[in-house]
Design a protein that fits this description.
three-stranded antiparallel sheet, seven-stranded mixed sheet
Length: 277
């Protein structure tokens, strides 16, 4: 990580550090990866209180128009629909967009507009104009974080919200150790916070904590729910993962759960568009 002099102090190159993490974890970045994971991911997030906590931090206003970048199947877009004037939900996974449209039909939601697109697209060509609020919840799947943050800042007229994992985030270090892999330090919220600071943005920070004491119907369901962490797992690694599941699943009523608790923390950063330092 490059250091350079800045006003007599050391200025870390957080963008370069972020890109190093990007290269290590490129397998989790593609639309195809999220297409495959879409149904199970949508089900998982619906069982978490993450969106409820995020919206409590947002304190949405009824007249807001909101751009949700990396919306997935509507983790935030769906509950926000009843709280704001309109939500534009942007995601690069066609399957996620199909799930969102289906959810809107089921609930007769008419103020959510799904748009298939990515961070790299020209948003104006997708018909996306200024919104009161721009948000990116756990979705900055980008190689250039500064460009993405600048893009959010430019598209919002009032406020921006972004969230990032704290530490390991949703990755379970025990699983990596069981497979004989090293879970390296990831580009978590502190990278993004310092990039924002170097952009002249002093962001507010609030934290969300979710407990991953999920229950499963079977060992197979538990095993399959963990595979997303290892998209390139070999046959021998899958066998080790299966052994881990067998050893650590315990009966919980009519279901199964792991014999340890794990709290996952997320940092929500937000700022007024004119709130620079």
């Amino acid at each position: 990580m490059k250091d350079e002099s800045h006003g007599g102090a050391q200025k870390l190159d957080w963008v370069t550090a972020w890109r190093e993490d990007w290269k290590r974890n490129e397998g989790h970045r593609s639309p195809e990866f999220w297409d495959q994971r879409a149904p199970s991911f949508a089900k998982h997030v619906s069982e978490s209180d993450y969106s409820e906590q995020f919206i409590e931090i947002m304190q949405p206003e009824a007249d807001w128009t909101v751009l949700d970048v990396g919306s997935g199947a509507g983790t935030l877009a769906l509950p926000l629909a009843s709280r704001v004037r309109h939500v534009t939900a942007l995601d690069f996974s066609p399957v996620m967009m199909d799930l969102l449209r289906a959810a809107c039909r089921r609930s007769s939601i008419q103020n959510v507009t799904p748009v298939l697109g990515s961070w790299d697209d020209n948003w104006s060509l997708l018909g996306i104009t200024k919104h009161d609020v721009a948000l990116a919840s756990r979705s900055m799947i980008v190689e250039d974080p500064r460009a993405a943050l600048e893009k959010l800042n430019a598209i919002a007229s009032r406020r921006v919200f972004v969230s990032f994992p704290v530490g390991d985030g949703p990755f379970d270090r025990r699983l990596f150790e069981a497979l004989g892999r090293q879970l390296s330090r990831r580009a978590d919220y502190i990278f993004a916070y310092n990039i924002l600071h170097q952009m002249g943005i002093l962001a507010n920070v609030a934290f969300i904590a979710t407990n991953r004491d999920k229950v499963y119907k079977s060992e197979v369901a538990a095993f399959e729910s963990l595979l997303w962490m290892f998209p390139d797992a070999s046959a021998s690694e899958k066998a080790k993962l299966q052994d881990f599941v067998s050893q650590h699943l315990i009966r919980h009523g009519s279901t199964l759960r792991f014999d340890y608790d794990r709290t996952v923390r997320w940092a929500v950063m937000f700022w007024d568009v004119m709130g620079t330092i």
